[in-house]
Design a protein that fits this description.
Layout lengths: L9 H27 L4 H18 L39 E3 L2 E8 L12 H16 L7 E9 L6 E13 L2 E10 L2 E11 L23
Antiparallel strand pairs: 1-2, 2-4, 3-6, 4-5, 5-6
The structure holds Palmitoyl-CoA (PKZ).
Palmitoyl-CoA binds next to α3, β3 and β6.
Length: about 220
């Protein structure tokens, strides 16, 4: 796991987010526009050329590998490449997760980029988002948990649009945390999941000069 420390202030995090979040949102718009565009083939080809130019520009300076999850000394994580919540990741819806002890909740808007069956959310996307949420619920005490087993039950089709999701810890047993999660539309639960989350055997929390107690740690931005 990547736990590199980046010694920056919360103000600096906010400054960086104020730059990358609008960019990521524009890329999300681009993805949606490409999926649904009905302009001519010539205009699609011209769009490709313009996008290729932007890609070449961004490639001039690239981080090797993935983004990872850097932490500040105060233990604020920056999982900005994360597939479900990453501030720099246009693949992420993103989820803006609210956490309290043993609980993680969020609302989201899933559009054309998340389609599986026509007009409905892809089952793998629902599983991805619930996986993130069970991980966040299991980790509200500051210790990370990996998904050991995730069992997903699709109760009825989830239409694309406004949705909410919730994950709640239902029990703990040694390094194992049990979490129940649901995804819902306006008419109720469409998908439910049960997870066994496991804190890895040899995991040691990184230490920081000003490491706050677990309950006060902000796990990510
Ligand atoms: C800097 C700090 C950060 C702070 C906090 C930040 C958090 C901010 C939120 C992040 C949220 C991200 C959410 C994304 C969630 C993913 O996507 S995680 C990625 C997908 N999961 C993986 O890649 C996990 C891959 N597997 C592994 O790494 C290892 O198999 C595991 C799961 C860590 C377990 O390994 P281990 O510690 O060696 O486990 P082991 O000692 O064999 O077994 C311990 C217990 O667990 C049970 N067990 C083991 N494997 C399994 C399994 N697969 N299923 C069920 N039970 C199992 C065993 O039976 C045993 O039970 P008991 O005998 O104690 O009753």
């Amino acid at each position: 796991m990547d736990f590199r420390i980046e010694d920056i202030s919360e103000e600096e995090i906010d400054r960086r987010l104020s730059v990358v979040e609008p960019l990521t949102d524009s890329v999300r718009q681009l993805v949606d526009a490409v999926i649904r565009s009905e302009v001519s083939d010539e205009r699609l080809t011209a769009a490709k050329d313009r996008i290729d130019e932007i890609v070449a520009d961004l490639r001039e300076q690239q981080r090797p590998g993935s983004f990872g999850t850097p932490y500040t000394k105060e233990f604020i994580g920056m999982p900005w490449g994360n597939a479900a919540v990453g501030a720099r990741n246009a693949v992420a819806p993103p989820l803006h997760v609210r956490r309290s002890p043993g609980l993680a909740e969020c609302e989201m808007e899933l559009g054309a980029a998340y389609e599986g069956p026509g007009g409905c959310v892809h089952g793998g996307i629902a599983a991805l988002l619930l996986d993130q949420l069970v991980g966040e619920a299991a980790s509200t005490d500051g210790l990370p948990s990996f998904t050991g087993t995730l069992t997903v039950k699709y109760l009825r089709p989830t239409l694309l649009g406004a949705l909410s999701a919730r994950a709640e810890v239902t029990g703990r047993e040694g390094r194992k945390t049990f979490v129940h999660a649901t995804m819902s539309d306006a008419d109720g639960v469409t998908v439910e999941a049960d997870a066994i989350m496991i804190c890895p055997k040899d995991f040691e929390l990184p230490t920081g000069d000003a490491l706050p107690p677990p309950a006060d740690r902000r796990l990510d931005r």
